[in-house]
Amino acid sequence: MKYESVIGLEVHVELKTKTKIFCGCSTEFGAQPNTHVCPVCLGLPGSMPVLNKEVLHYAVKAGLALHCDILPFSKFDRKNYYYPDLPKNFQTSQYDLPICLNGYIDIEVGGKTRRVHLTRIHMEEDAGKLVHSGASIDTSDTTFVDYNRTGVPLLEIVSEPDLRSGEEARAYLEKLRSIMQYLGVSDCRMEEGSMRCDANISVRPVGSDKLGTKTEIKNINSFSGVQKGIEYEAVRQAQILDEGGTIQQATRGWEEAKGITVLQRVKEGDADYRYFPEPDLIPIEVSKEYIEKVRAELPEMPDARRQRFQDELGLPEYDANLLTLEKQTADYFEDVVKEGIDAKTASNWMLGEFAKKLNEEGVTADQAPVRPAALAGLLKLIAKGTISGKIAKKVLPEMWSSGKSADDVVKEQGLVQITDTGAIEEIVKSVIAANPQSVADYKAGKKKAIGFLVGQVMKQTKGRANPGVVNQLLTKNLE
Asked: Alpha-carbon distance 338 to 353, whole Å?
């Protein structure tokens, strides 16, 4: 490979506070445009901001979870730029004295662990949202501005350029989302914009330690978009260099439908923002006692929970990884196990049929209509032999849509498993008599022929015969 990618990510995480960062307006998502606004977040003359203390709390909590240094003295600054979604014509952010410095996140890709170092975490306010009448600003006759999001609190988490591929960038984002969700500071729903990513990417010859000219891909709103955008941009830059061209430092947008990045504007530098200290907000002083108090609140983190699932519950690393990626899934799984269900059995269903239903409905585990005790009830019926695993896969969707228990669905639909060997044997004999070719194949050494016969018995019993008993009786009668 001629070139290697050098990638750093700037991730904006929307904090899960009830009110905005400097005023009492609601942060609720999905309200009518311009209904969650006031003189402070609209930047009207004479209005004065006051820091929401929960924002500071969440920032310190996130910093500690990400192994950062918490600065005892930090301040807010004005970042000046002009855009329709910024009513004050400046954004209140942090510049030279952010709340957190340094830190790291460990990721694993392809069986290898990489430590991604963090530059900083700072607090800031969000801007509003432009609503175009068309698919994009170029194809729109009108553009409206919704200021509901203006002043919603954000943490900007900035990494060092330690990532080397789109796959690593995706793993980093998934790990970061997981940590933020475990902390309870953000729901990190990329589809709602509560987690957004800007990717800085450059390429350089393999073996070089000199950084190339970077471009920034703005506001990518999906993990796959981040990975694809980085991969496309790396190829684009490499082609330019191969042709003897130079990379222009610029901001580019990711067009998901076309799978390309497009030029938005030539990149500005920090000097263009004319930062200066925010005169309407006093500096922030954080004591050691406060930091230790917040540290004591930290919950079990994803890595620790994954290891516990392996050590205490005996789960394979693969299962433990997937189950702990989202806090809601891990919580649900543990609640199922607490109902007396074997951990591996619960895992198989959580990562199989249950995950399939979540994906179909587009919901997370905590939003599923089938609660942990109800899923445990279904798994207990399988364990008791009341129903087969195959029947259970039909029962789960009915529980999901009707809200009924597994017991009720099984009784109402007459799905109780047939375990009476006498009744099954009669059907086995009739199937053997009706399929002489399969019997001949089996006796000729084609042992797979028994699978067809099992299928015929299950078909006649509408899936209710105990598969183990069916196999046993077929083998006995054939031999």
From this structure: 20
List the beta bridge partners of residue 418: 465
CA dist 462 to 380, 404, 477, Å? 21, 22, 21
Integer Cα distance of 203 and 212 in angstroms: 6
CA distance 118 to 35: 37
Residuewise pLDDT in 10s, the chain (479 residues): 688 889 999 999 999 999 999 999 999 988 999 999 999 999 999 999 999 999 999 999 999 999 999 999 999 999 998 888 999 999 999 999 999 999 999 998 888 889 999 999 999 999 999 888 877 777 788 999 999 999 999 999 999 999 999 899 999 999 999 999 999 999 888 777 789 899 999 988 888 888 888 889 987 878 888 889 899 888 888 888 888 888 888 888 888 888 888 888 776 666 788 999 999 999 999 999 999 999 999 999 999 999 999 999 999 999 999 999 999 999 999 999 999 999 999 999 999 999 999 999 988 899 999 999 999 999 998 888 888 888 889 889 999 988 889 888 888 777 666 665 666 667 767 777 777 776 666 676 666 767 777 777 777 777 777 676 767 767 676 66
Helix (H, G, I), strand (E, B) or coil at 44: coil
Phi-psi region of 463 (alpha: psi -120 to 50; beta: other; left: phi over 0): left
What's the CA gap between 86 and 99, in Å, rounded?
A: 23
What is the third-level CATH fold of 421-478?
Answer: Arc Repressor Mutant, subunit A (1.10.10)
* Half-sphere exposure in the Cβ direction for 254 (13 Å, CA): 26
Taking the C-alpha atoms of residue 407 and residue 219, their distance in angstroms, rounded to an integer, is 48
Tokens found for residue 146: 């919704």
DSSP structure class, residue 26: B
Cα–Cα distance, 146 to 34 (Å, whole number): 5
| Biggest distance spanned by C-alpha atoms of the chain | 94
Alpha helices in 296-371 (DSSP H): 302-313, 317-324, 327-338, 343-349, 355-361
Contact 167/109 with Cβ under 8 angstroms? yes
- Say how far apart CA 195 and CA 225 lie, in whole Å: 13
* 365-374 burial code (b ≥16 CB/10 A, e <16): beebebbbeb
Segments of the chain assigned to CATH 1.10.10.410:
421-478
| CA atoms of 415 and 461, how far apart (whole Å) | 10
